[in-house]
Amino acid sequence: MLDVEQVDIFYGNLQALKQVSLGMKPGEIVTLVGANGAGKSTLLKTISGLIRPSRGSIRCLGKSIEKTSVEKIVAMGVCHVPEGRRIFPGLTVFGNLEVATSSWRRAGESCQTDLENVYRLFPRLRERKDQLGWSLSGGEQQMLAMGRALMARPRLLLLDEPSLGLAPRLVQSVIDVIRRINEQGVTVLLVEQNAHTALQIAHRGYVLELGRVVLSGAAADLMKDERVKKAYLGG
């Protein structure tokens, strides 16, 4: 599904990623664990085409994508829900969802089945479908950002801090939806501020420190690792 090999990223003279490698199989949930500034968001942006690697290679669905445009990467089925949601405030909920179908929709093809799937996952969006994006609560905006990504028919979903700023009860709802999305066959690469929560739902994980992968393995094993417990799990 995804192979990142020896990727370097520079912001000017600052090296943000240092020979980062990771792999994902279809159907997995893989999480990136690390402190703020470790390079997690940078890695997601690099995979989705927003940042070009200085060195290294990225293969997704059997194709090299490190020089591919964002639009073509989305058309391949790679969708990125960035930190901060980035919904269109001047569009309605329905408008935000519909705009994401442009990568696959053909003249006359209905998106109703896709809409119904999103509304089943996020019933609140059906209730709010005619409201403008700016009028939604933070939790509803996160639902909309995830629903919009699903409307693009992803095969690989990149989620950056989906629970950031949400009340605990909404965090659990978001986690439950991620599980359900994965059960529908979508592979998920997750960056989540709560390492314990992320490792609970992930199959595998990678630990990033200062732009390097320093540890990787099954999520259950990482949760037992003393280094991970001490640094990220409060153990």
> Which regions have little confidence, pLDDT < 50, spanning 5+ residues?
none
Strands ordered across the widest β-sheet: 6-7-8-3-9-10
Strand content: 25-35%
Which percent bin holds the helix content? 25-40%
The CATH topology annotation reads as: Rossmann fold
What's the tally of helices? 10
Per CATH, which architecture? 3-Layer(aba) Sandwich
* Average pLDDT score: 90
Count up the domains: 1
The rounded distance between the terminal residues' Cα atoms is 33 Å
At the first level of CATH, what is the class? Alpha Beta
Main sheet? Answer: 6 strands, mixed
> What is the number of E strands?
10
Class inferred from helices and paired strands: alpha/beta
Q: Please, what is the CATH homologous superfamily? A: P-loop containing nucleotide triphosphate hydrolases
For this entry, what is the oligomeric state of its chains? single chain
Output the helix-strand order. EEEHEEHEHHHHEHEHEEHH
Care to describe what's here?
It is globular, with a radius of gyration of 17 Å. It starts with a strand and ends with a helix. The chain has one domain (2-232): 3-Layer(aba) Sandwich (Rossmann fold). 41% of the residues are buried. Helix 3 (93-99) runs parallel beside helix 6 (138-151) and helix 4 (112-121) runs antiparallel to helix 6. The mean pLDDT is 90. It has ten helices and ten strands. 37% of the residues lie in helices and 26% in strands.
